[in-house]
């Protein structure tokens, strides 16, 4: 069972937009046992779209197109698809209603262009878009299936999750594919590969391992595939995951789709504990991560972003003398910050960060990327220093993740 | 003059890696006047590579492949290219020397795998790689040019900058391509299309418009192309951009690669003004955006994340009575938050946000997505209410961007 992905839009071909839709679709298709044999990005151009459809359907059973469904004149996908599949465009009254409701909820009224978006090929299955006005479409031609999705990532993902995944599972007899992912922190990729080499080479043939690194986190994904017994595969995979865990123990902080900020939230909530933050160089990233979790207000009380030294003193009770003697990026200051916000907001825990994100502000002693992180609890204050390198954006990200890891470790131990 | 890009590697087709190489190459090719007509990602597979080369060279004059040049057994690009171009592989003594020097500088000595990498097709131009062991290659066949580059982004970029760009300019007579992008806020895509329809259809033939939407921001990109007079095109494009601006005036907040948080930073810095923030539902996103800009500490003093009502009262001086009578998501509370943080941090401006990010917490009166935003200056306090819909992540993003727009507008007017 093979698929191809076609992304339509000039913005990708001029390099203005990085095509993340294809990576999402490729990941999801692989998860349900559909291999992707090619991804093509092509122009908003009739001939080009027609050729690409022909070429792709010569190789694959399923072709998924994204993009080109907007209401503007450079979006020509729908008309070209209608031509390819010999369709009449018909206004679909149900779609008009759903677009009207969607727009009304946003305080916008229906206009002519929106009505145009409800004109859909008569011979497709509509894949409703609950997040936008461009509908998904599913066609069948000569035994091959073709899907068209909007290019806005959020809308494309919504249709995948709410409609398309289910549909594909109904349409095709798919092999069983299972994944177990271990989320690890603290062991770099090449060291990890050495550490688990013996286990990896002894894996059964139908199991495969992938290394998925991202800043601060390395995911190890075991993929298993069977045409026969689903339950047997589940058992086998669990056993292999346990063996892997035994090798790398404390580096594993979660499984599958777990997120660090969700794990921390659960630990705090379950133990009726509260948290506050004091951020300098991370400038709100830690609190933004924490509050991305629904229900965060149950344990996260708030924070101080102390970007200036004045505010470190006035709001967090950092001693001006300590600041003068040690500088803002120092163990003494970051510990006072954590202690200060914890006392002020009366929380069980507080995390504080002070560092040099860059690109300027570094010295020989404290180069760009130097970051102090402290954790204060009702019992004690811990702190650590890091150097995350010289990229501002990655320094901020890595410092925020490192701060959350310190908290998670403390919550696990106490 | 058309080009196609082929990225070779299974990791892209399983969604493990987002293909950023293509976006880089597409940007650079367009800059020098080479249009990219297709980008394809294909497997590490001999037949697939051969077919892709045939298909691409039927459409384009230049084909650039990346990936598959590593020393491991799944990297088969070089042998497949040698087959396609009828080449013998020969060890190149100059390349051996350069690989040896590169490795010695890293404290590593040459091994057999490295020597294999110096085996190159006898009938290609070598594009030396000063950043790694896999060399770039340039072939000519039946009047078409083919380039093969390593897949490691840093090495690919090094070869582009040091070798390939220069080479392509020598090989081809290139047209000039220019882009002007207007960044707009506040007019949805379909309304914008109506508003500028007359202007759009009257554009000269060599100019094209594209709509590039993202949460809260719509970019309008004019692309111009000429085979003749570069300066004339520049003038023509400026004139058309001015006409467009005249139509949508205040919706335009920046040009080309401008970022809202950078524009605001510049306005504050140039006028020696300071800013603080008080965030509830955005939970630190606004401050994270502001502090993503290098040098933000010159104007951004800090902020309070007041996730709980207690903290709204204790830190921002919001009246408990106002909170009780109006609820936290209300005009009165958000105005007190803005005023409170501005007074506390003694800044010229302050922005405050209070809303219901979701997924729970909505009521009939105040559904999920209801967000109040206030701006306080030394002169006055402004506030607005929004409804951003029902997705938590997007509510937070959109609220943060809307808050920055209110500030930008005020800074422009004062």
Key attributes of the depicted protein:
alpha/beta; 43% helix; 414 residues; homodimer; 25% strand; Maf protein; Molybdenum Cofactor Biosythetic Enzyme, Chain A
Quaternary organization: homodimer
Low-pLDDT residue spans of chain A: none
- Distance, first to last CA of chain A: 50 Å
Q: Indicate the radius of gyration of chain A in whole angstroms.
A: 26 Å
Question: What's the CATH C level of the largest domain in chain A?
Answer: Alpha Beta
Summarize the biggest pleated sheet of chain A.
6 strands, mixed
Could you give the count of β-strands of chain A?
A: 17
The best one-word shape of chain A is: globular
Helix content of chain A: 40-55%
Give the CATH H-level superfamily of the largest domain in chain A: MoaB/Mog-like domain
Question: Overall mean pLDDT score of chain A?
Answer: 92
Q: Total helix count of chain A?
A: 16
**What is the count of distinct domains of chain A?**
3
Q: Which CATH architecture of the largest domain in chain A would you pick?
A: 3-Layer(aba) Sandwich
Q: Which two chains form the greatest contact, residue counts included? A: A-B, 88 and 88 residues
Strand content of chain A: 25-35%
Question: Care to describe what's here?
Answer:
The structure is a homodimer of 414-residue chains. With 414 residues, chain A is α/β, with parallel strands linked by helices. Chain A folds into three domains: 2-171, Molybdenum Cofactor Biosythetic Enzyme, Chain A (3-Layer(aba) Sandwich), CATH 3.40.980.10; 176-255, Alpha-Beta Plaits (2-Layer Sandwich); 260-413, Maf protein (Alpha-Beta Complex). The first copy, chain A, is built from 16 helices and 17 strands. The first copy, chain A, has helices spanning 10-13, 21-31, 46-59, 77-84, 93-105, 112-117, 153-171, 189-195, 197-201, 230-248, 260-270, 285-291, 309-316, 320-326, 331-345, 392-413, and strands at 2-8, 35-42, 62-66, 89-91, 119-121, 125-127, 136-141, 144-149, 176-184, 207-214, 217-226, 252-255, 275-279, 300-306, 349-355, 370-376, 381-387. The longest helix of chain A is centred in the last third of the chain and has 22 residues, at 392-413. The model of chain A has no long low-confidence stretch (mean pLDDT 92). Chains A and B meet through helix 1, helix 2, strand 2, helix 3 and helix 6 of A and helix 2, strand 2, helix 3, helix 8 and strand 10 of B.
